[in-house]
Amino acid sequence: MSHFRKFLPLVTFLLFGSITVILWQNQNKREQELVFRHTETSSEQMRIRIQGLMNTRMASLELLADRWVKRIPPDFSRKRFLEFAENLYTHYPGFMGINWIDPEGVIRWVFPMKSNENVIGKSVYELRDSKVRDTFQEAGKNLQYIATPCVEIIQGGLGFHTFWPLIYTGKMQGFLNGVFQVKLIVDTCLPRNIFKEFWVRLYEAGQVIYTNEKQSNSNLKKNKLHVVQEIHFPGKIWQLELIPKAAIYPPRVVWKLFLLTFGLAVSAIISILLHLLLQRMQMNVQARDHALQEASERKKTEDIVRNLSQMLMQAQERERQMISYELHDSIGQNLSTLKISCDMLFESQPAISPELRGKMAELSKLLEQTITAVRNLAYGLQPPGLNEMGLVKVLEIYCEEFSENSKVKVNFQSAGLHSFDMDSNFEIHIYRLVQEGLNNIRKHADASQANIMLMGASPNIILRIEDNGKGFDVKARELELSNEKRLGLRSMKERVNLLGGLMKVQSRSMQGTKIFIKIPFKKQKNESEKAHINH
What we know:
Layout: H1 2-70, H2 78-91, E1 97-101, E2 107-111, H3 113-116, H4 130-142, E3 146-147, E4 151-152, E5 158-168, E6 171-181, H5 182-189, H6 192-197, E7 198-204, E8 207-211, H7 219-222, E9 227-233, E10 236-244, H8 253-280, H9 282-344, H10 354-381, H11 386-389, H12 391-405, E11 409-415, H13 424-445, E12 449-457, E13 460-467, H14 474-481, H15 489-498, E14 502-507, E15 513-520
Parallel strand pairs: 11-12
Antiparallel strand pairs: 1-2, 1-6, 3-5, 4-5, 5-6, 7-8, 7-10, 9-10, 12-13, 13-15, 14-15
């Protein structure tokens, strides 16, 4: 037994050192896996947005070309073309220019005039890039849609041209020319926070046609955490490469080595202390170590649960943001295209009866209402303008809209929040608490009035939600929460617990409900700002 005690410190050091190395390696792998998954998800969202935008733009140009030659009687006037072009340019951002080229290849009409006036009267065959000339010649020869490779366009930057032959009664009437700039397409599709988190590259035929890198960075070539996606739309195949920046995947090599060294040093210290303590207070030390280990494990477990809950809520917010973008950019744009098609359906047929036109007008109005409903749903999933207007203003707008769309009149008040420097994640949590509270009132309270009070009382932020509804038995409700599948108060309580706060509910039958939430918050602004009160 005594010989075993001699080697026990060494065994302990090897054991703790091995555990430290294993944990260190697992932590590195876990961080890389999380970053890679985030990069994969972001690249797929970017591919869907760029591909959806370009498919929509190509479909709108095809629709314009079809309507241009099918009008009876024919109308090939400059005024009609500019009306069509302005309609597309206004409702479908992303165009650099929409032009009409005569059969001889001379650019006659352009829109918008401001950025394209220098090409009026020029022949396509006079353009300096042979790829554009050859592609235009091929479009006239085959009488089919075609897109040029990405080249330096006259308006500036890399872009490409699309040519749609316009055939009327078997004769060439001209060409519809759409001009796209790659940078404008990317800026239209992608939110700005993407460029803060990732290096973005677009390739065509192996050549870089877009990147947000300010200068060549050799470290990017060594980064294995990059994702490549293919983007397909008529006449084009692009490759999208996404590389995480240090903002979400900092190298931290020195810091990680320090943690490893620190862990090994702690293991050595523990081994030495263990050797000394075994000689004097073996039993007491074992009991104390056991208690400390239990407390440490409990704290680690609580931290893991808290981190997982935080990650889950962040994932839910990202999912809501993605669905909101899809509703607004894909479904909303498709409905807008359908509305334009309905409005233009009988433009070339003046003999249509007034009754049929009236029904079509009703259908167009219904589509407009549907577009509004989809937009409201997208805004409900992702609060608009939170970073630009701030939490208080967004909540004021939300409460006003909630009052207009329901039978509950909401009175919102705030005070003392300018002394608190809240980040976007914290503001989202507060917004969701108000949103969930009002939704509970609308669904269950049968109330006519609600009061929302958001106050800053250092070092806490206090939120009060009150209504004059029918109320409920609080104790009975708390017993039902564990077996209740639907969200509501349980969701609010979990969110408050995640923030380290306190939530109390007071309610009686036919006397309304009061919810009191107190959340600790330590990061505050300068003292000079604390006197300002926002109502």
